[in-house]
Amino acid sequence: MSPALKPTLPTLDKLGVAIPQDLDVEKVAKAWLESFSQFVSAKDTEGIISVLDAEAWWRDLFALTWDLRTFHGPEEISAFLENRLEETQFGGIKFIEATLDRPYPDLAWITVQFAFETGVAAGRSVTRLIPSKDGAWKAFVIATNLESLKDHPERVGALRNHLPNHGKWVDQRRKEQEFADHDPEVLIIGGGQSGLDVAARLKHLGTSHLIIEKQPRIGNQWRHRYEALCLHDPVWFDHMPYIPFPESWPVYTPAQKLADWLEFYAGALELNVWTSSTVTNATHNEETGKWAVTVKREDGSERIFQVDHVVFALGLGGGAPKVPDIPGKEEFQGQILHSTAHRSAKDHLGKKVVIVGACTSAHDIAADYADHGVDVTIFQRSSTYIMSTKEGMPRMMSPLFWEGGPPTETADRLDNSLPILFTKLLAQRKAATIHEADKELLEGLKSVGYRTNFGVDDSGFVFLALKRAGGYYLDVGACQKIIDGQIKIKNDSQIERFTKTGLKFENGSEIEADVVLFATGFDDYRGPIRKILGEEVGKSLTPIWGLNDEGELRTAWREVGVPNVWYMMGNLAWSRFFSKHVALQIKAKQEGLFGTRYPAPTVW
């Protein structure tokens, strides 16, 4: 982001304008688009800049850069256009629709959606126009999203298989999954939602794939987590590609129910999966460009695949469980475990439990303990962002991802069209209304000594998720248990050491415990990749997750600093949306259509 520009909201007061009552939205949108299209066709960068606001943003989602990039202000946008206009053959612009949107009384923009083409692909843009004092409307945000590759459409709808299959399907599926006489083009490590999503996208693009899953069943990543686990995102946000959840699906999905759905999904979409299998190593053949990937199966046999691409789909839990190194562990006479090894409160009936950590897993597990009458204390190392799902989710997700919202694909385009750093300004407004709605809950927590915060720059939980994949709890009942004393809180000092019977703190206080459970997240996501690729190749791996200077997530949904090795991750919504981009990048490489990636500088 240009150092001279800071993100601001284009409020009507700031712009010094009012929205006319007789505004012809479509006429304004088409007039702007005609000018923009003419400048694009002429490869006239100065002309394009002339129809943009002085503080405009341009977010490209793999359409013009083969990357996730955000440019802010005329200087950055000009440099981007000078580099990419000619090479990508951006053009073919066609109007789709325009609406006047007013997210707040003092904010208004015309949202224009248009189709476009590049030399090898088709895309969709969501562009937001704002008024100026001279009556002109200019683009404040342009987003260009990669939608498809020319001549390589998804095999869905009219392009599905139209031939009847009498008695051959079972044998065909067995042979397809065995890969007895050939290798897949893409090998995917991990069969959670991100692995399944990218496999489904690849399959519908006609690219062969094989998922390697170490668990004996698809869904076990969710099935064997702690019993109290339930999604805190609503169902409208969590649909998977091609097969949405049924209309009767609950708003918040229990983990075991999701596990069964993932298993069903893999079967229904005929995804190729080897369960009870592990990738032990992968080496790159410089001559052929392929990766030799060794897979060990449950019976001890090994198979070496020669594949074009390797996708690590290990998710946010891909790193090893993170457990702080606290002195005295060897003296402690109780049980020490990480949240990933915990199953149920019933395992510790009659025990005293201390949970180290105070975010989602900690609260879920603590609430389960409280429901079973277990003496449980949360040790809160630092403050936590709290938002109730009752008050927060409707405000956060509506109208895009709520009952009566638009089709999921439309909602995804709109939601991902805003630059992340700009969305913080909107998130701050939403967070303020949520704080007020949760006021009684937050004051109750404060009264018992629980420490809260309002997120990064008072923006709520989303930027905590983007920056550190944690630091918050979306409350579904644990907070009231804390207020009522069913879950105790300890946060007046840091831990000094274990004792034989519990924990001692730096202020001299002690707490007894039979069980110390660490809900402390995961180590570097690159750890499992290094084990497979080797330490030497591992030195080239770029950081995964966290925001770069442009506000884009690092490495996710792209190559990991090593050719044709990808990292696929995210919650159900991000996996749904960005799996398409990963699959399209891979397909483009397979077909010789992939251009030059235009990446942001790596932030290590």
Automatic annotation (TrEMBL):
UniProt entry keywords in alphabetical sequence: FAD, Flavoprotein, Oxidoreductase
InterPro entries (alphabetical): Auxin_biosynth/cation_transpt, FAD/NAD-bd_sf, Flavin_mOase-like, NTF2-like_dom_sf
> Which GO terms label this protein's molecular function in UniProt?
flavin adenine dinucleotide binding; N,N-dimethylaniline monooxygenase activity; NADP binding
Q: Which SUPFAM superfamilies match?
A: FAD/NAD(P)-binding domain (SSF51905), NTF2-like (SSF54427)
Output the PANTHER family linked to this UniProt entry: FLAVIN-BINDING MONOOXYGENASE-LIKE PROTEIN (AFU_ORTHOLOGUE AFUA_4G09220), MONOOXYGENASE, PUTATIVE-RELATED
Protein's name according to its UniProt entry = Flavin-containing monooxygenase
Query: Whose protein is this, by species?
Result: Hermanssonia centrifuga
Organism lineage string:
Eukaryota, Fungi, Dikarya, Basidiomycota, Agaricomycotina
